[in-house]
Amino acid sequence: MIFRKPKNILEGHSKIVPGVSEIVEDPVISCTSCRKALTTDELEQEKQVCPYCRHHFKINARQRIHMIADAGTFIEYDKELAPVNILGFPEYDEKLEAARLQSAEIDSVVCGECELAGIKTAIFAMDPFFMMGSMGRVAGEKITGTFERALEKNLPVIGYTVSGGARMQEGMVSLMQMAKTSGAVKRHSDAGNLYICVLTDPTTGGVTASFAMEADIILAEPQALIGFAGPRVIEQTIRKRLPSGFQKAEFLLEHGFIDNIVYRRRQKAYLTQLLQMHT
Predict the structure, then answer these.
(1) For a 10 Å CB count at each end of the chain, is N or C smaller?
(2) Rounded to whole angstroms, how far apart are CA atoms 80 and 37?
């Protein structure tokens, strides 16, 4: 962020704050895609999307839920569940504490139920600021529990994914969550319930190989990286150059892996329409 004191009160986005002699200016952020200077107010109004190039900035799990849920309807599930260092992995406790401080969350996913245009739905959103949305034992338990509650209440499920994959500090326990969540998705689906997943940047690894790609309707945000292994790993393995834009949402849409790409500003209306069609 860049802070600058303007020459006069008419310059830039200056504000006069009562009781403060200095002029305070909105922080300015440079877009990581087009490099345009943006104020935090601009980004807030655009739902954290660059108004010039439409680059979608990463946002946390609660921002996701707040953007689509009807005001005051979100009820959180399992908010007390917290990961522990079950394998005694070196420095994992310190990494967990750092992730909690950075994200203000206990783990990498927030789950619950809410209403969209009055339609009750279960919802989960992964958080990129907690160890890059990695999936461990607690994340798998919370997502599984969300599908189980949705099955009991005959609710559709909307999920937002962002992840670097399974959490290596939990070893085989984290990989087991792939089967656990997939089983819950299958039972929910067998009962005739709807599951919509929105893939955001990046969705990779064990999350992609399980519940992220098992939805009835799979959506994505523009330019989201979606895949199992990363492009460099694939190129080193097959010893070939990959096509331009490989593993980006647009490439996956063209090749039939996802159903549509939806800009963030349209997501609530789009998801509401899908729910209305299927309930």
Answers:
(1) N
(2) 39
Q: What's the CA gap between 228 and 215, in Å, rounded?
A: 16
pLDDT at 71 over 80: yes
| First-to-final CA distance of the chain | 45
Cα 122 to chain centroid distance, Å, stands at 15
Asked, for residue 8, whether it belongs to a domain, the answer is no
Between CA 207 and CA 199 the distance in angstroms is 10
Q: What is the pTM of this model?
A: 0.87
Cis peptide bond prior to 27, omega within 30° of 0: no
Instruction: List the CATH number of the domain containing 207.
Output: 3.90.226.10
Number of alpha carbons in the 13 Å side-chain half-sphere of residue 238 = 10
Distance (Å, whole) CA 262 – CA 56: 11
- Number of domains the chain contains: 1
Q: Where do runs of H (alpha helix) occur along 85-135? A: 92-103
150 vs 152: CA distance, rounded Å: 5
Instruction: Answer whether 194's CB lies under 8 Å from 216's CB.
Output: yes
Those residues with Cβ within 8 angstroms of residue 265's Cβ, 6 or more apart along the chain or in another chain:
46, 47, 49
> pLDDT tens, 242-254?
888 899 999 999 9
